[in-house]
Specification:
Elements: H1 3-17, H2 26-50, H3 82-90, H4 95-98, E1 110-111, H5 121-127, H6 156-169, E2 179-183, H7 185-197, E3 206-210, H8 217-223, E4 230-235, E5 244-249, E6 268-273, E7 292-296, H9 297-300, E8 309-313, H10 316-330, H11 335-353, H12 361-383, E9 386-387, E10 394-396, E11 401-403, E12 409-414, H13 422-427, E13 431-432, E14 434-435, E15 445-449, H14 454-465
Parallel strand pairs: 1-13, 3-4, 3-5, 5-6, 6-7
Antiparallel strand pairs: 2-8, 7-8, 9-12, 10-11, 12-15, 14-15
Helix pairs in contact: 6-11, 7-10, 12-14
Pfam families: Alliinase_C
GO molecular function: carbon-sulfur lyase activity; transaminase activity
Protein name: (wild Malaysian banana) hypothetical protein
């Protein structure tokens, strides 16, 4: 047996017998000491890297291996002086890093760039366990929900609750001849509709347009795959051509206006985005009856995290192609999300249909949005440097009353002399908004979300009142 093997045998035998093993000699001790020293040096080097210093005294970030120190400004305590606020702005405050966060002080960054509907959290907390759903471990394991259905991954209970809710509100036609296509949010349905409406063998990509100010995601969603089937072509009002797909968002994101199609052609197609056509935002003047109508749970009930939307489609062939796109894209849509949202929609409908139920989502949402718009208009008037669009009231068939429009977003224009970029001006005051340039218009405009939690909205109003 080799000597090394004998040493391992003696060590193991000594351990078993309970005796202290005999160390091989001074060379072994030196080996242990050297190993320990090397470990200590390694730990020290790793600690220095973690603290933001590179090897051999190099600044962190020089090698691309460690985090960039300049991003520390995003989590540093808010500064108070005008000069320090300007410094934060120059460092390009990250929109994503502050999204969904609660303000920790009066001087905190307020992120109103996204339409994150946390405003509805309080309502659903009051609902309690009535909005809960439990999934057994064996449930929803198959890809298929209903193999006999055109949209084979559509959960029957979700489809039932969608039809029930639309019938209750009266905001869309949902007769048996209408196909329901479920998608992972409206974004996937946008793409599915573009795929379905674009000729597969056309010599040129289909032009996709929308009237300004258009939803900021339309251009990016259209072009980010660089599809040969379709391409973004800009403002529908200035488009010249016979073949196109027009997005019509009504009420419009960002300005809240009621929209109709701008273009008309036998070779043109229209997609109606009705994400905000719900009673908390606008009067329901009739049941929408268009070829393709898109809705999303994020703005109807506030459950953006469920990532679920649905399309109401007239034409069977278009519905088939939309289903095929989703099949190729994600092999269907989460059944767990569909069942959860089905329960949520049931709670909403029950709240308005069953007698004695005090938890009515649309009444809650409308009261809250009314209060927020009243506070916002008062703050804008007091500042003297901003303006907002005006809206006419209409008879709402859902409430039976003359009601006003309370959009989910404020379309704010900066009237202050010398300010051409409203988004940058507000960013300097730690207010994150979305520039009008993303919506196809000038930078004097910004879109501001009114769907955040109460503490964030109230701090926003205070901040706005401080601007002159």
């Amino acid at each position: 047996m080799p000597k090394a093997s004998k040493r391992r045998t003696r060590w193991s035998q000594a351990s078993v017998e309970g005796r202290a093993p005999a160390f091989p000699g001074p060379i072994w001790g030196l080996t242990i000491l050297g190993s320990l020293s090397l470990n200590l040096v390694t730990i020290a080097l790793l600690a220095s890297l973690y603290e933001g210093h590179g090897l051999l005294g190099c600044e962190a970030g020089s090698s691309g291996f460690v985090a960039e120190p300049e991003k520390a400004v995003l989590i540093a305590p808010p500064q108070s002086s005008a000069e320090e606020v300007e410094m934060v702005s120059a460092e390009e405050i990250s929109v994503s890093s502050t999204a969904g966060s609660r303000p920790t002080s009066k001087d905190a960054i307020i992120n109103l760039d996204h339409g994150d509907p946390t405003v509805y959290e309080a309502f659903w907390k009051r609902i309690g366990e009535r909005g809960d759903i439990v999934f057994p471990g064996w449930q929803s394991m198959s890809y298929f929900s209903d193999a006999s259905n055109l949209c084979w991954f559509l959960e029957p209970e979700f489809a039932h609750q969608v039809r029930r809710l639309h019938s209750l509100v009266g905001n869309a036609v949902v007769d048996d001849g209408r196909f329901i296509i479920v998608g992972t949010g409206s974004t996937q349905l946008f793409q599915a509709a573009l795929y379905a409406l674009s000729p597969p063998d056309a010599a040129e990509p289909m032009n996709v347009v929308s009237a300004i100010p258009y939803y900021s995601s339309y251009p990016t969603v259209t072009d980010y795959l660089r599809s040969g089937l379709y391409r973004w072509a800009g403002d529908a009002s200035t488009f010249e051509g016979d073949a196109y797909i027009e997005f019509v968002c009504s009420p419009n994101n960002p300005d809240g206006s009621i929209r109709e199609a701008v273009l008309s052609s036998k070779n043109g197609k229209t997609i109606h985005d009705l994400a905000y056509y719900w009673p908390q935002y606008t009067p329901i003047t009739g049941a929408a009856d268009h070829d393709i109508m898109l809705f999303t749970v994020s703005k109807s009930t506030g459950h953006a995290g469920a990532r679920l939307g649905w399309a109401l489609v007239k034409d069977k062939d278009v519905a088939k192609r939309m289903t095929k796109f989703i099949e190729l894209n994600t092999i269907g849509v989460s059944k767990d999300s569909q069942l959860r949202v089905a329960k949520i929609l049931k709670v909403v409908s029950d709240g308005h249909e069953l007698p004695g139920n005090k938890h009515r989502l649309f009444e809650y949402g409308r009261r809250l949005m009314s209060v927020r718009w009243r506070k916002l208009r008062a703050a804008v008037k007091a500042s003297g440097i901003f303006s907002l669009p005006e809206f006419q009231s209409s008879l709402c068939r859902f409430t039976g009353e003359e009601t006003e429009t309370y959009p989910a977003f404020a379309w704010l224009k900066c009237e202050k002399e010398g300010v051409e970029d409203c988004e940058s001006f507000l960013r300097n005051h730690k207010l994150l908004t979305r520039s009008g340039r993303h919506f196809g218009v000038e930078a004097k405009y910004v879109r501001i979300s009114l769907l955040d939690r109460d503490e964030t909205f109230d701090l926003f109003i205070q901040r706005l009142l401080s601007l002159r």
